Write a sequence for this structure.
């Protein structure tokens, strides 16, 4: 995907702000949540996110991601355990924790009769930021997210993508040190999604720790340095993106070819799939020699004109991990 | 990077900014939808003054040395204040729950008392503005000399505060819009009409007079009538004790519910 290839990639490009600091940006300690219905959404979740990290929190629907984010942002009461944000406990210093966090929730949750400018300035006020400071800050973020031209119109007149960007601008009003994004690009077209990632990557490079949940796993693979996968209320994987992807013992390539006619050739150790008359997909063990692949294809009269990595490696791993844990929850 | 330390005075300043923001937002909302918030009580009370004050009042005769129109003005003003303070906070706070933008408040560092005080301040201000409008309309129908201005203003503020707090509790428990309409219809309206707005409870025989004394609105109406006309059915200090007791009791309950996140946090 040409558009996605332009997305900044902290996991492959050394960032300005490497994860650092003795105190983690977030430390979750044996966090549990049982809803009144009896559903155990979190079963003693523990994880750490370093300062400056770009962290992916992934999991199938109903795995407990939104419950965990809800607890961190004071929207859900935990049943047990604790979480520390820059060393402050959510139980002992809720106000101090909230000052560190900016939240972009999954669902639209602003007053649709207010204007984006008023929403941003009012939310700054809730954090104790005077209007004289909040007004230029609101303009700055609304401009950066390219919705300044709608700043004084009721938000109900805005498109879905604009509303999502407004929620990011609103989350930035207290200039948080930890930005939590709960599926921020759901239902957003690729161009807007790309502009959102440029903005968030810039925020991360400036030092803000970012936690992201998304169902677009390619996004997480490109953007995030570290990753936790949660399923059935438990962390089933918590590692660096690079280490996780290295666990994948097969690699897939998309090959643009000429001279391919008729049936697919049978090649030793390579699973070939025909995508169309000019495109094949080759899946092979990581140790397999690429030269041998090219030679075998040439022998069958097929010429490879270009090739690229198939970029949904994380998706393959994700499915494996979740299936191993008993399948998707919902 | 260390976490910035917020001193006591910095927290106080931040809380005052937050309080001002909620109050300002509430007032802005009230003025933005003025045809729903300010015009209806003005029309309703004009009808009350015309029908009860002019048409029926002329046949009722004087009450405690005042014309019937003059006698019912304090009660009608207080009735408007109570209804509008209650209606403002229930619709605004429940609206924020329904539209989920209450999460902006819950995910902020504001303490619960700031959230509660901000909403109550907005509702009290609407009550006072509507009360002033109704009092202004009353002056088209009769003349009034305010006997005890301090009593009048403190009573109206306490009355608005009590019903703002009650409305806030109602909105916290409400799950549907129907739930915020039930209390005004089945509780507030009967208590108001039986609270001595249109008559003196001394006109009632036993046990109705004693039963009326259990109605908190009776104390507000009569304290306000004392403030405006200098007459009332209950001693004014008793009315203050009752009103302050309600303010503290309802305030404590609302704050406890808000801290627990009842109806807000799962």
């Amino acid at each position: 995907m040409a558009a996605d290839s332009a997305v900044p990639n902290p996991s492959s490009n050394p960032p300005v702000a490497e994860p650092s600091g003795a105190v983690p940006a977030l430390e979750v300690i044996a966090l549990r949540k049982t809803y009144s219905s009896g559903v155990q959404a979190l079963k003693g979740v523990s994880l750490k996110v370093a300062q400056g990290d770009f962290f992916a929190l992934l999991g199938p629907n109903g795995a407990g991601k939104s419950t965990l984010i809800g607890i961190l942002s004071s929207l859900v009461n935990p049943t047990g355990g604790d979480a520390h944000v820059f060393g402050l406990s959510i139980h002992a210093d809720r106000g101090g924790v909230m000052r560190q966090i900016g939240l972009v929730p999954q669902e639209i949750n602003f007053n649709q009769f207010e204007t984006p400018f008023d929403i941003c300035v009012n939310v700054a006020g809730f954090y104790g930021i005077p209007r004289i400071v909040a007004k230029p800050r609101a303009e700055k973020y609304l401009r950066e997210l390219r919705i300044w031209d709608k700043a004084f119109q009721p938000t109900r007149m805005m498109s879905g993508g604009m509303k999502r960007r407004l929620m990011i601008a609103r989350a930035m009003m207290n200039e948080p040190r930890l930005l939590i994004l709960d599926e921020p690009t759901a239902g957003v077209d690729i161009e807007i999604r790309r502009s959102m990632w440029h903005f968030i990557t810039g925020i991360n490079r400036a030092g803000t720790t970012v936690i992201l949940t998304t169902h677009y796993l390619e996004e997480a693979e490109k953007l995030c340095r570290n990753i936790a996968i949660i399923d059935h209320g438990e962390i089933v994987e918590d590692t660096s993106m690079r280490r996780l992807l290295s666990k994948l013992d097969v690699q897939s390539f998309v090959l643009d070819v000429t001279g391919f006619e008729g049936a697919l050739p049978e090649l030793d150790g390579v699973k070939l799939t025909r995508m169309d008359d000019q495109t094949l997909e080759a899946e092979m063990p990581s140790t397999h020699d690429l030269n041998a692949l090219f030679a075998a294809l040439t022998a069958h009269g097929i010429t490879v004109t270009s090739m690229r990595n198939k970029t949904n490696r994380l998706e393959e791993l994700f499915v494996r991990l979740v299936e191993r844990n008993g399948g998707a929850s919902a | 990077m260390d976490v910035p330390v917020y001193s006591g005075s910095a927290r106080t300043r931040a809380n005052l900014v937050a309080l001002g923001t909620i109050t300002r937002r509430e007032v802005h909302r009230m003025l933005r939808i003025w045809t729903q918030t300010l015009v209806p009580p003005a029309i309703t009370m004009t009808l009350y003054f015309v029908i009860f004050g002019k048409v029926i009042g002329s046949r009722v005769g004087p009450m405690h040395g005042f014309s019937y129109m003059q006698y019912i003005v304090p009660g009608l003003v207080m009735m408007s204040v109570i209804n509008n303070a209650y209606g403002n906070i229930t619709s605004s706070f429940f609206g924020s729950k329904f539209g989920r933008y209450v999460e902006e408040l819950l995910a902020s560092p504001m303490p619960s008392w700031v959230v509660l005080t901000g909403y109550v301040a907005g509702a009290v201000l609407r009550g006072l503005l509507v009360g002033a409008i109704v009092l202004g309309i009353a002056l088209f129908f009769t003349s009034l000399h305010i006997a005890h201005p301090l009593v009048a203003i403190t009573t109206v503020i306490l009355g608005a505060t009590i019903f703002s707090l009650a409305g806030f509790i109602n909105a916290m428990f409400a799950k549907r819009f129907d739930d915020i309409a039930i209390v005004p219809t089945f509780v507030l309206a009967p208590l108001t009409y039986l609270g001595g707005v249109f008559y003196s409870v001394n006109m009632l025989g036993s046990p109705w007079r004693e039963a009326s004394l259990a109605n908190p609105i009776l104390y507000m109406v009569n304290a306000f009538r004392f403030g405006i006309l200098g007459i009332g059915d209950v001693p004014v200090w008793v009315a203050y004790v009752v009103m302050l007791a309600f303010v503290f009791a309802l305030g404590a309950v609302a704050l406890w519910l808000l801290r627990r996140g009842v109806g807000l946090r799962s």
